[in-house]
Amino acid sequence: MEPLNAIKGVLFDLDGVLYIGGKPVEGAMDAVDRIRNAGLPCRFVTNTSTLSLASLQAKLGSLGFAVETEEIISATQAARLYLMRQGDPVCRFLLAEDVMQDFADFRQSDTDAEFIVIGDIGDAWSYRLLNEVFNCLMRGAKLIAIHKNRYWQTEHGLQMDIGAFITGLEYASGAQTTLMGKPSADFFAMALISMSVAACDAVLIGDDIDADIGGAQQAGLHGVLVQTGKYRQAYCDASTIHPDRVIPSIREFPDLLGL
Ligand SMILES: [Mg+2]
């Protein structure tokens, strides 16, 4: 396979690339080390919205990846920065408990929110909750989605993600969603700016052909798809998105970069 030459910065998707569930992907640590030792700046980009920045760093550390918080670009972090630019808004957060600590400074209301922020709340979804959010949207609240993923891979198989709930709320209310995580171009721009690397000199490695590869390519980066995590061959064969390279796993990534 033709190597990707002259890459100056690397974005790693986390789940499905570095680890699956609670286990590191074989060879992932060595691959990250080789890339770091070559002097390439790295960012760890994730749509995961169940963990605060501190917890994400701790999780990566426990799996053997030593990462600074400044190197982690999470979709919830992007949402926090976005809301801070909106003055002092009243918000309703549908977010995992651990992430809520990153949003404790904001004013909150279940009924009079100006912004509704939706992330992962596991099986807390119900018709009643969807209807409450729907009514807020009908009163003019703005909808912010941490991501709009279709599904993700767990140790127990594929699980339906929040994308379908967001789409359902948009359909019912006519609201337009502001998307925070991948594939939003703003999200990739934030990562590139923090590394001072131009999009055309950067590569993302991910397991999600839509949010990772499609988003990266749309933002001008190279996109390398791994066949671990949520990768499904039939889904990718039918996709209109064409990754720059497809490799079995992150283990082959340093070779691909000519390192
Ligand atoms: Mg992933």
Automatic annotation (TrEMBL):
One Pfam family from the record: Hydrolase_6
Sample GO molecular function, one term: metal ion binding
Alphabetized UniProt keyword annotations: Hydrolase, Magnesium, Metal-binding
UniProt keyword Metal-binding, yes or no: yes
Cofactor: Mg(2+)
A Gene Ontology cellular-component term: cytoplasm
Entry keyword annotation includes Transmembrane: no
Similarity field: Belongs to the HAD-like hydrolase superfamily.
Name of the protein described by the UniProt record: Haloacid dehalogenase-like hydrolase domain-containing protein 2
Originating species: Methylovorus glucosotrophus (strain SIP3-4)
